[in-house]
């Protein structure tokens, strides 16, 4: 005859597994950081070689090394940037996602005026805190 485990027993196992997972993730992240550092150093050395040779790519027996310019854009002043976006009808310069906390607050404060086309998806989840 098997007995159904209690919530306390399940919670105990859950906490132990979660802690083991955290330990494993921490160890993994530390090991990966070592490799990332080595890769960064190698990439830096190859970039220096490309620049010194005046080349944008070099083919070798083990692979092709090439350089490319990556540009990242970000506003220095969000207030000014948002005003400009509205004035220039340039909403397409923004990513398509909503600020979850702000939408929740809006809906709480304006229950009769939800944004059109907004869909909500709720899911019951369980959280375990260690005592």
Describe the structure.
This protein is mainly α. The protein folds into two domains: 7-66; 72-120, no CATH class. 51% of the residues lie in helices and 6% in strands. The protein is built from three helices and two strands; from the N terminus they run H-E-E-H-H. The protein has helices at 7-53, 78-87, 100-109, and strands spanning 57-60, 63-66. A two-stranded antiparallel ribbon has the order 1-2. The longest helix is centred in the N-terminal third of the chain and has 47 residues, at 7-53. It is flat and about 70 Å long.
Give me some keywords for this one.
131 residues; single chain
**Straight-line distance between termini:** 31 Å
Choose one word for the global shape. flat
Secondary structure: helix percent: 40-55%
Largest sheet: 2 strands, antiparallel
The largest sheet has its strands arranged as 1-2
Mean pLDDT: 93
H/E element sequence:
HEEHH
Query: How many domains in all?
Result: 2
Low-confidence stretches: none
Instruction: Tell me the structural class.
Output: mainly alpha
How many distinct helices?
3
SS strand fraction: 5-15%
Write down how many β-strands occur, each being a DSSP E stretch of 2 or more residues: 2
Gyration radius, rounded: 26 Å
Structure in a nutshell:
With 131 residues, the chain is mainly alpha-helical.
How do the helices and strands line up, and which of them pair or pack?
Layout (H helix, E strand, L loop, with lengths): L6 H47 L3 E4 L2 E4 L11 H10 L12 H10 L22
């Amino acid at each position: 005859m098997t007995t159904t485990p209690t919530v306390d027993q399940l919670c105990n196992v859950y906490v132990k597994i979660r802690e083991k997972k955290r330990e494993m993730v921490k160890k993994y992240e530390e090991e990966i950081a070592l490799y990332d550092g080595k890769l960064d150093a190698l990439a830096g050395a190859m970039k220096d070689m490309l620049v010194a040779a005046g080349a944008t790519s070099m083919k070798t027996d083990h692979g092709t090394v090439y350089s490319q310019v990556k540009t990242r854009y970000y506003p220095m002043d969000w207030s000014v940037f948002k005003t400009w976006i509205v004035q220039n009808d340039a909403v397409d310069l923004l990513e398509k996602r909503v600020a979850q906390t702000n939408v929740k607050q809006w809906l709480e404060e304006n229950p009769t005026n939800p944004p059109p086309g907004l869909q909500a998806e709720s899911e019951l989840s369980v959280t375990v805190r260690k005592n």
